[in-house]
Write a structure and sequence with these properties.
101 residues; mainly beta; OB fold (Dihydrolipoamide Acetyltransferase, E2P); five-stranded mixed beta barrel
Length: 101
């Protein structure tokens, strides 16, 4: 069985194109909980808990490096690009160890 994979830069560009067209939303907040097995993430933003599920094609980035979900921990500041749904589906998750200006 042949499986085609796209370079992560191309997938990320497609995600940002969808964001620009208004097909996806963005949220900034702090991770409250990460369930690595079920790929579920809770983020606190604006005094509210947001619940997300990461799909199989989700892009994970930490300090501008492609990574895996296990690199994310509660209290990390994150930016979530997601598709509004029940549950909301993460398309890309970004975090930075250092403060971004």
């Amino acid at each position: 069985m042949n499986v085609l994979t796209m370079p992560s830069e191309r997938v990320e560009a497609q995600i940002h194109d969808q964001l620009d067209r208004g097909e996806l939303k963005v949220l900034q907040g702090r991770l409250q909980r990460v369930n690595y097995q079920s790929k579920e993430v809770n983020v606190i933003s604006g005094g509210k808990v947001w619940r997300f599920s990461a799909d199989d094609g989700c892009q994970f980035w930490f300090d501008d490096q492609k990574t895996i979900l296990r690199c994310f921990h509660p209290l990390d500041e994150v930016r979530v690009i997601y598709q509004e749904n029940q549950p909301n589906v993460i398309k890309a998750l970004y975090a930075w160890e250092k403060q971004v200006a």
